[in-house]
Amino acid sequence: MFERFTKDARAVVKGAVEQAAAVGAASVAPEHLLLGLLEREGSRASFALAVLGGGEWKDAVRAELAEVRRRGGLTRAETEALAGLGIDVAEIVARVEDAYGIGALSGSRRGRRVGHVPFEKGAKGVLQGALRIALARRERHIGDEHILLALVSRPGVPAEVLAGHGMTYESVSRVLHGGGEAKAG
What we know:
The chain is mainly alpha-helical. The chain has one domain (2-68, 107-177): Orthogonal Bundle (Double Clp-N motif). The protein contains ten helices and no strands.
């Protein structure tokens, strides 16, 4: 499949691996693909992010993703659902961090053997989604814009974080492919 990726899409995947390695993650997650996208400039996806206000909120997205990592990957929706059952995730995180240190729930592999960082099922699903989106548009190559569209179309942390900033599949698609105003949300 990677032979169909454009230079920009390959750079996003490489950036995702670097992002995962930088935080000591045991695997590349969809969040790392989003971070890889945020690092890009001069590509179709970076254009869409900029049009939709990405320059103004990139740091906020990075901070939100770091907080999700700190919660062990739980989305805001999952945290709220647990709160509805009387489970205070913030309290659990605080107690675990008191006992084992800051970031203990982050899935870090610090201190473990460093080597190949595999892609977790969710990240593979994003890349497969990017392929499906490209094929549906009858496009020969998979670009970073297809990765962005796949991230906003799949349930999970990246879609939730981007939606919180007005980024939806529809708004990104409008910017990339036309069909109306290019407004967020």
